[in-house]
Amino acid sequence: MDIDLSADDLAFETEVRGFLSENAYTNGANPEEWRMKWFEKAKEKGGWDVPKWPAEFGGPGWTPNQHYIWQKETARAGTPWDMPFGLSMLAPVLMAHGSQEQQERFLPAIRAREVNWCQGYSEPGAGSDLASLKTKAELTEDGKHYVVNGTKIWTTMAHIADWIFCLTRTSDAGIKQEGITFLLFPMKQEGVEVKPIITLGGAHTVNTVFFTDVKVPVENRVGEEGKGWAYAKGLLEHERTGIAGISNSIVALEGLKKRASSVKRGNGSLMDTPSFRSKIAELEIDLMAVEYTELRSLATASAGTAPGPESSILKLKGTEIQQRIQKLTMEAGGEFSAAWGGINSGPDFARAGMGGYMSSRVYTIYGGASEVQKDIITKKVLGIKSTKK
Ligand SMILES: Cc1cc2nc3c(=O)[nH]c(=O)nc-3n(C[C@H](O)[C@H](O)[C@H](O)COP(=O)(O)OP(=O)(O)OC[C@H]3O[C@@H](n4cnc5c(N)ncnc54)[C@H](O)[C@@H]3O)c2cc1C
User: Fold this and answer.
1) Domain harbouring 136, CATH code
2) What's the CA-to-centroid distance between 377 and ligand 1, angstroms?
3) Quick one: pLDDT band at residue 64, thresholds 50, 70, 90?
4) Interaxial angle between packed helices 228-244 and 311-333, expressed in degrees from 0 to 180 and rounded to the nearest 10
5) Structural domain that includes position 131
6) Which of 119, 178, 282, 325 has CA 20 to 30 A from 204's CA?
7) Which among 20, 114, 102 has a CA at the least distance from the CA of 57?
8) CA separation for the pair 316, 321 (Å, rounded)
């Protein structure tokens, strides 16, 4: 694939850099005010606040190279805090399968970052085998509401979410992928209870969510009853592409090299030692290979096609690379990384070393575990059929 930048691309790159530096955070500014202003300014640029949305829904309609430039430049310059659930996961589902009324009702608030969404897919007995989900949605006799009962788990940011997009079971007939229905409902209502889960990295990001007789109007169902699995799968492909985080890894790797150069070893630095250097070189080569895969996926996306099973390659390799960067960062901090946030006499970056490493364990689990991605790649990308009878 040709990724040489044309004169137009170079002009775009300059424009993006200009925008990012003009709107960069300045010390002392109110972070939330800055964040909202940033998105407003990005919107004025012609849909830069929703870079992945198609032009017909107000996105910028960029070429693959423009997306590539945007990702690289924003990874370097940093952008305001944002949540992917509404913007990058639910929005494409609504655009493809939602009614016009749902699109008009939900998309503007998602775009304005006014409503936080969370993703209610996984359950205690349904993670990798998501189609086994049991949260029940029963239609009331008058056909006006669903009544939802069940439990979701690992629900990221459920404690601050306003709404949830939720997979529910409306029928047990047929194979388990049938009878799944995609519902939208508010989190702050009677019958919804959120309990925190503290992760290995010491953070509260995930939760268990219990539903007891939660009433959901039928107009909050996306698409047809029982067809939710097809919509959910499409959403996962968007999620997996996002999780890969290639541009961020490129920036993180540069940072790691600088850090390793600041750690003394003998007469030189850690970066001069052959064993550490070769780990960095292997990482860099793998990262370049995934970067090319991402470019192929961007080309597909900008041709208007949703990401396909190849998003599993990005998810698998991209998350492994993120973990390797965290592991080498911890290694570069040496024994000081073990202090984990305490006061120590080692390099500053070492303080976050252990926490970052622990937190990075989840990358190869959420959004579909690595083993499951390998299964998808085997069947859908390589076309290898199972020999199991
Ligand atoms: C930090 C974090 C945030 C998350 N956020 C959300 C969220 O917001 N919303 C949401 O719905 N879910 C969320 N999840 C859930 C996530 O998608 C699941 O954890 C994931 O799909 C794995 O499911 P599981 O945890 O039930 O593990 P299991 O499915 O029980 O898997 C356990 C192990 O068995 C392996 N395994 C399972 N099946 C196979 C197979 N067929 N072949 C080979 N090996 C297999 C897995 O790879 C894994 O190593 C989050 C998870 C984490 C850790």
Assistant:
1) 2.40.110.10
2) 17
3) confident
4) 40
5) 117-227
6) 325
7) 102
8) 9
Q: Three-state SS for 269?
A: strand
For ligand 1, the distance from its centroid to the CA atom of residue 281, given in whole angstroms, is: 31
Of these ranges, 1-10, 68-77, 336-345, the one predicted with the greatest mean pLDDT is 68-77
Kindly give the distance from the C-alpha atom of residue 133 to the centroid of ligand 1, in angstroms, as a whole number: 13
Residue 216's pLDDT is 98
**366 pocket-lining for ligand 1 (C-beta < 6 Å):** yes
Protein residue whose Cα sits closest to atom 26 of ligand 1: 127
- How much distance in Å is there from the Cα of 65 to the middle of ligand 1? 33
* Residue identifier of the C-alpha nearest atom 44 of ligand 1: 371
Residue 344 in this model has a pLDDT that exceeds 80? no
Would you say 246 and 291 are in contact if contact means Cβ atoms under 8 Å apart?
yes
Has residue 98 been placed in a domain? no
pLDDT digits (tens, 9 = 90+) for 89-138: 999 999 999 999 999 999 999 999 999 999 999 999 999 999 999 999 99
3-state secondary structure of 79: coil
Q: Which of 227, 254, 279 is the last residue of a domain?
A: 227
> For a substitution probing ligand 1, which of 154, 205, 206, 374 has the most ligand atoms within 8 Å of its CB?
154
pLDDT, mean over the chain: 92
pLDDT per residue over 212-255, tens digit each?
999 999 999 999 999 999 999 887 877 777 788 899 999 999 99
What is the set of active-site residues? 239
Residues 175, 259, single domain; the answer is no
Q: Is the domain of 265 the same as that of 373?
A: yes
User: Atom 51 (ligand 1): residue with closest C-alpha?
Assistant: 366
Domain match, 183 and 146 both: yes
What is the domain count for the chain?
Answer: 3
CA 356 to CA 41: how far, in whole Å?
Answer: 32
Tell me the whole-structure pTM to 2 decimals. Answer: 0.91
- The finding on whether 368 has its CB within 6 A of some atom of ligand 1 is yes
Query: Do 221 and 185 belong to one domain?
Result: yes
Cβ of residue 155 lying under 6 Å from some atom of ligand 1:
yes
CA 368 to ligand 1 center in whole angstroms: 6
What's the CA gap between 28 and 105, in Å, rounded? 36
Instruction: Give the nearest ligand 1 atom to 370 CA.
Output: 47
Task: Assess if residue 90 is contained within a domain.
Answer: no
pLDDT band at 1 (very low <50, low <70, confident <90, very high): very low
Tell me the C-alpha distance between 12 and 93, whole Å: 29
